[in-house]
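INTERNAL TRANSFER SHEET
From: sequence group
To: structure group
Subject: NTE family protein

Please process the attached sequence and return the structure record in the designated field. Keep the field labels unchanged so the import script can parse them.
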Amino acid sequence: MNASTRPFVLSGGGARGYAHLGVLKAFAEHQITPSAIAATSAGSIAAAFICDGYTTDEVREIFQHNKIGLSMEWRNWRTGLLSLKTVEKVLTQTLRHKNFEDLTTPLYIAATDFNSGKQMIFDKGSIIPAVLAASSIPLLFQPIVIDGIPYVDGGLTGNLPAEPLLEKYVDIIGVHVNPLTEYHPENGYLANIDRTLHLAIREPVLKNKAHCKEFIEPAGLGKFGMFDFKHFDDIYNIGLEYTRQLMQQK
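Return from structure group:
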C-alpha cells in the first residue's frame, strides 16, 4: 500500500471531537496522513497534537491520562461557567513545538472575533492561545484575548473551516462530528441547547461540505452530547469503525 497525504478539516463538537482521533486512525491504517489540517474547537485540540508529530494512539493516551474533558474547572456566571486551564496545562506540558511555524504539518485554527463576529484563521505565532480561543464556547468560557482582541469558539463562524485550505490544497477530507438527529422532546435541556447551537451554525458547514472531496460524518455520534466526556472510548470507536467501513468500500 502506497503512503499518501491529504488535507483534513476537523469540526468542533465538544466531547464528540474525540471521534476525530478514530477517523484519523482509520486513515493512518491505510497509509493516509494529513498534509495539512484546518480545525476549530475540539477539532483544533486534536489537530495541534497531530500536526506536532504525535500519532493518534499517542494523542488518545494523552487525552485519557489527563481527563481533559472531565477536568474543566467551574467558575462563575460573570466570567463564564468553565475554565480551560486543564487544556492549557496539558498543551503546555505536552506539545513539542509551541509555534505554528515549527510544526511538522501545517495547521490552521479558526476562531471567532468576539468584537466583529468575523472568522479569524491563526497559522502563525503561538499555537496554544489559538487553540484555547477556538475552543472557548461563549457563555461557558471566557473569551481568549490575543493581541488585544477577544476571541471565542470558531464554530460560530464556521464549524467546518475549510477556507484556509481551498487555495493551496485539493482533495480535502472533511470530518464533521455533529450529525443532525431527529428531534425528541424527551432528550432534555442540554440536548436541546446542543441541537439549537448546531442548527444555528449549520449553513456554513453545508457550504464547506461542498468543497470536500470526502465528507466523514459518523451517524452514531448523534446519541452523544457535547459534554459526554465519560464516553471517550465509545465516541472514539464510532469514528474509527465508521471510517474503516468507508475505506473498505473503496
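Handover comment: Residues 70-81 have pLDDT under 50 and may be disordered. The CA atoms of residues 2 and 42 lie 30 Å apart.
Transfer complete.
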